């Protein structure tokens, strides 16, 4: 689930990504560690962030 706020209005969307809870870092909002799974999830999240900011 992704969330974005624009001009005070929050919108949610499904990013269709899953990650094991043991890998998720809630403070950093990304997967922790250097495993292939973590790297793939973080790369996809970064691509979503980049596309939102365009």
Which bin fits the share of residues in helices?
A: 25-40%
Kindly name the structural category: alpha+beta
Beta-strand residue fraction: 25-35%
The stretches of 5 or more residues where confidence is low (pLDDT under 50) are none
Protein traits:
two-stranded antiparallel ribbon; two-stranded antiparallel sheet; alpha+beta; single chain; 54 residues; elongated
Q: Short description, anyone?
A:
The chain is of the alpha+beta class. The chain has one helix spanning 36-53; strands at 2-6, 9-13, 24-25, 30-31. The chain has one domain.
Question: What would your notes on this structure say?
Answer:
With 54 residues, the chain is α+β, with helices and mostly antiparallel strands. The chain contains 1 helix and 4 strands, in the order E-E-E-E-H. The strands form 2 sheets. A two-stranded antiparallel ribbon has the order 1-2. The protein has a two-stranded antiparallel sheet with strand order 3-4. Strand 1 and strand 2 form a beta hairpin. The model has no long low-confidence stretch (mean pLDDT 92).
Strand-helix topology:
Elements: E1 2-6, E2 9-13, E3 24-25, E4 30-31, H1 36-53
Antiparallel strand pairs: 1-2, 3-4
